[in-house]
Design goal:
Number of helices: 3
Strand content: 5-15%
Low-confidence stretches: none
Mean pLDDT: 77
Distance between the termini: 138 Å
Helix content: 55-70%
Radius of gyration: 56 Å
Shape: rod-shaped
Strand order of the largest sheet: 1-2
Structural class: mainly alpha
């Protein structure tokens, strides 16, 4: 204990002082602390790598989705063009095979419509149309008119 004296500095307190020797003791917790620091660093590296992988996968997925959307748009455009062309060709085909056009073409090449009193038969050598020769009477005209009316009503 220190005695209280009136002097400001009592130097006697420092005269016979034993020198303290510091003893170095290896800290057991030091190795654990080093392992924890290494493990903490590895956790940071692992989490960083995981986040970078997730970001890369999201970017790749977004790129694939964008590419597929562009492919779908292109395919839809081609489908619309093909449908328009199909409609155009269908209209052309139906107009090309219109009955009046077929009849006009038949007249151009010299074909005529068959009448009710004509008979068509096929020989092995040639095709012929045989027309009954004779005078037409009023009964034939009425029956032909009636047959035309029946063809019109019941196709």
């Amino acid at each position: 204990m220190v005695k209280q004296t009136g002097e400001a500095y009592d130097l006697r307190l420092f005269e016979n002082r034993e020198e303290r020797k510091l003893q170095v003791v290896e800290n057991q917790n030091r190795k654990k602390l080093a392992r924890r620091k290494n493990f903490h660093g590895m956790k940071i590296i692992f989490v960083t790598a995981l986040l970078l992988g997730l970001i890369a996968s999201v970017l790749t997925t977004n790129n694939v989705v964008t590419q597929l959307a562009a492919d779908i748009y292109e395919a839809q455009t081609q489908l619309d063009e093909a449908r328009a062309q199909g409609d155009y060709l269908s209209d052309q085909l139906s107009s090309a095979h219109d009955l009046t056009q077929v009849e006009a073409y038949a007249e151009q090449i010299g074909l005529v419509k068959m009448h009710g009193n004509e008979v068509y038969y096929t020989l092995e050598t040639e095709n012929e149309i045989e027309v009954q020769n004779g005078t037409k009477n009023m009964l034939d005209d009425i029956s032909a008119g009636f047959m035309n009316l029946m063809e019109y009503l019941l196709p």
